[in-house]
Each structure stands twice: as C-alpha cells, then as structure tokens.
Design brief:
Layout (H helix, E strand, L loop, with lengths): L5 E7 L8 E7 L7 E10 L2 H8 L22 E2 L3 E9 L11 E4 L2 E3 L8 E4 L11 E5 L3 E3 L7 H5 L1 H14 L7 E4 L5 H12 L3 E6 L4 H6 L4 E4 L4 H8 L4 E6 L4 H6 L3 E9 L13 H4 L4 E4 L5 H13 L6 E6 L3 H10 L5 E5 L1
Parallel strand pairs: 11-12, 11-14, 12-13, 14-15, 15-16, 17-18
Antiparallel strand pairs: 1-2, 1-4, 3-5, 3-9, 3-18, 5-6, 6-10, 7-8
The protein binds NADP nicotinamide-adenine-dinucleotide phosphate.
The site of NADP nicotinamide-adenine-dinucleotide phosphate (NAP) has 29 residues, from helix 1, helix 3 and helix 4.
Length: about 350
C-alpha cells in the first residue's frame, strides 16, 4: 500500500474555544517498533474532545486550572480518541499479517502490563489521535474487526463511549436480572450504557430529557424519566424495591438524590460530571446500607476485549447521528456541545 508523506489533520494549538482547533498539513507518522499505522476510516467525537480542547478538567491542587484529564497537554495535539480504519503498515517486529485488516483502536495508555491495568492516557490527549488521515497505535491495541456486521462509522463510536460504559458496568458488577439506573442517557456514554445494560439482562431505568426520551426508549430502556421533573420521585415509583446499580455520568445533585435510591449493598458508579463536579451527600446514606461509591475512568484491556467480542457478534448496534468532513471538526464539536442529537457524531477524513 502506498502511504503519502504528508496528511491533513485537525490540531489544537492551545486550550480554548472552537477556534483553537486548526487544520494542518503534517507528516504521516512513522510506526515505531511494535506499532501499526492505520488509515482512519472514521473518527468519533466525545465530550472529552471538547473538555480537552477547553482544558476543563482542572487539577487536584487547582480545580479551576486549564488542564487535560491527566495534567498539562503538549501542543499542538491532534485530537480524537476513537478510530476505526484499515492497517496500512506495521513498524519493525510488527505482524505484517495485520496489513489490510479492518480494525478498531484501543485508545488507552495503561500504567502496567496485564488485563486489569489502569488507563492513564488517551489518544488525542496524551498522544496524537484520529482527527487525521492516519494514526499510529501499539499493535496489541489494534483489534481485528473483520467480519463484524457494524459499519466503519459504528465501529468508530465504540472505544470511548462503549468502553467507558462497559468499564462502569463491570466495575459496578451489574448482573442479569438487576435494576440499573442510567443518567445522561441520550448521550454517547449514556446510550451505550442503556444498550450494554439491556444486553446483560438488566432492567434499565434511564434519565433523559424532552424530545430525546423516545429515542432512549427505542435504544432499549425499559423506563425513561424526564429530568425536568422530580427525578427521585419518579424513580422511587418505578423501583420501590430500590436500584442495584446507578450508572451516572451527570453527578451534581443526582449523587445526593440517587444514593438513597440504591438497595442494600447497591453500587453507584460515577464517570462524568455534566451536572456539576462539586457533590454533597449524606454519608450516612452510604455506610448504613453498605452501599459503594465507585469512580470509573475508561476501560481496562479486559473490558475492551469483551467490548470487541460484543461488536464482532453484532450484539450492540451503535446509533450514528451525523457525519462531518474532517475539516468541519470545530463545527462538529459545536454540534456535540449543543446536544440536540441522539447517538454519536463522526468525522470522515
Ligand atoms: N470517566 C470516563 O472515562 C469518561 C469517558 C467518557 C466520557 N466521560 C464523561 O461522561 C460525561 C458524558 O459524556 P458523553 O460523551 O456521553 O456526553 P454527551 O454525549 O454530550 O451526552 C451527555 C448527556 O448528558 C445529559 N446532560 C447534559 N447536561 C446535563 C446536565 N447539566 N444535567 C443533567 N444531564 C445532562 C444529556 O442527556 P439528556 O438530555 O438525555 O439528559 C446529554 O445528552 C461527560 O462528563 C464526559 O466528560 C467520562
């Protein structure tokens, strides 16, 4: 396969508004030993792209500091954690048999070897990502999707949204027959949570809003409550026996309101803070009922392999709301932030 010398990419040159995301003609990266070069077929957008661009993560010693999720970023940085495409080359010691395969990239950098290591970095943040024509990745994080019934756009939606969702479900130990509560249910992670929890055989109670409620129900939620109304009251009526696992990307007042809704020994898994990151709750509602509050960031290698198996079998069918050309990445991020859509937005290089 002939690989050109240069490629188009969209890079952030500093933290800020959509204007800091700029087009550039850059060298196609050379795969190092143990890496593959992937021609990007589609790159999905995530809320983390917007927060990374804005520097909205704060730092432990200064919550208002401009920062990426793991600390300071190196600029310029090609954004984009979620890539599906074809392998076009491998570096020294790489398996040449990978060339030509349709793949999905696990975008995490891990703190150790092994299936349960913690993710401590992300493509598009700590290394260059998929808002480009080509991207490199370690070969053991390039997953063969030959035979999956999903389209390249659908495959691109999997790593961050579905990876995070499956990480939450696994860390929250959700079992068949249990009741799960999903917040932010029309969003990327939320819709993935609905589908994955349903596929696991759970009863799914979702929190969403307005015109998106019907789409969340169509994605598999058994019940959807409107967050514009009394959420705890609606949930208590739907699950008087309590909720086994709260799968929450909203936080804010929902943690205070949601913890008392858990059954004895219930788990509240938090992975996002769209409703506010300073949270107050009555700790008695936690310890007196042996409830657990679990922080969840992305996925492990084991979670990602499980996700790829689900995608190969077609057990999940991600919804793609819209596709944009790569050069319209800033506009696409703007659309993401407006949250008028249901499902995932993707870029085509
Ligand atoms: N921990 C991790 O590894 C990880 C990974 C990915 C994302 N995240 C975080 O998870 C969160 C969701 O990400 P996403 O990509 O799914 O976002 P998204 O696609 O933008 O969707 C978020 C959804 O949350 C709901 N929402 C938005 N603002 C809200 C508010 N103020 N109060 C209540 N609900 C609100 C909306 O759904 P409704 O209108 O239907 O309620 C919206 O569709 C973000 O905080 C993101 O940074 C964390």
């Amino acid at each position: 396969m002939t690989v050109p010398r240069t490629m188009r990419a969209m890079r952030i040159v500093q933290h800020g508004g959509p204007g800091v995301l700029r087009p550039a003609e850059v060298d196609v990266p050379t795969p190092r030993a143990g890496e593959a070069l992937i021609e990007v077929g589609a790159a999905a957008l995530n809320n983390t792209d917007v927060w990374t661009r804005e520097g909205a993560y704060g730092r432990p010693d200064d919550p208002a500091a401009l920062s990426g999720w793991r600390g300071p970023l190196t600029f310029p940085r090609i954004q984009g954690a979620d890539v599906a495409g074809h392998v076009v080359a491998v570096g020294a010691t790489g398996d040449a048999g990978l060339v030509g395969l349709r793949v999905v990239v696990d975008p995490a950098t891990y703190d150790a070897a092994g299936p349960d290591a913690h993710p401590v970095g992300l493509m598009g943040s700590e290394r260059d990502g998929g808002y480009a024509e080509y991207v490199t990745a370690p070969v053991d994080q390039v997953h063969d999707m030959t035979g999956s019934p999903l389209t390249v756009d659908q495959l691109a939606t999997l790593p961050t949204a579905y990876g995070t969702a499956l990480g939450m479900i696994e860390r929250g130990r959700l079992h068949e027959g249990e009741t799960a509560l999903v917040s932010g249910a029309s969003g990327g992670v939320g819709l993935a949570l609905v589908q994955l929890a349903r596929a696991r055989g759970a009863r799914v109670l979702a929190v969403s809003s307005g015109a998106k409620i019907g789409a969340v129900r169509a994605a598999g939620a058994h019940e959807v409550v409107d967050r514009a109304r009394d959420v705890p009251g609606q949930l208590r009526a739907l699950a008087p026996e309590g909720v086994d696992v709260g799968l929450d990307v909203v936080a804010g007042s929902l943690v205070h309101d949601g913890l008392p809704l858990l059954r004895e020994g219930g788990r509240w898994v938090t992975a996002g803070a769209l409703g506010g990151h300073q949270v107050g709750f009555d700790v008695r509602r936690l310890y007196l009922h042996n409830r657990q509050l679990i922080g969840s960031s992305m996925h492990t290698r084991a979670h990602f392999r499980l996700l790829m198996d689900l995608a190969r079998r077609g057990d999940i069918r991600p919804a793609v709301a819209a596709a944009f050309p790569l050069g319209e990445a800033a506009h696409a991020q703007d659309e993401l932030a407006r949250r008028r859509h249901v499902g995932k937005l993707v870029l085509h290089p």
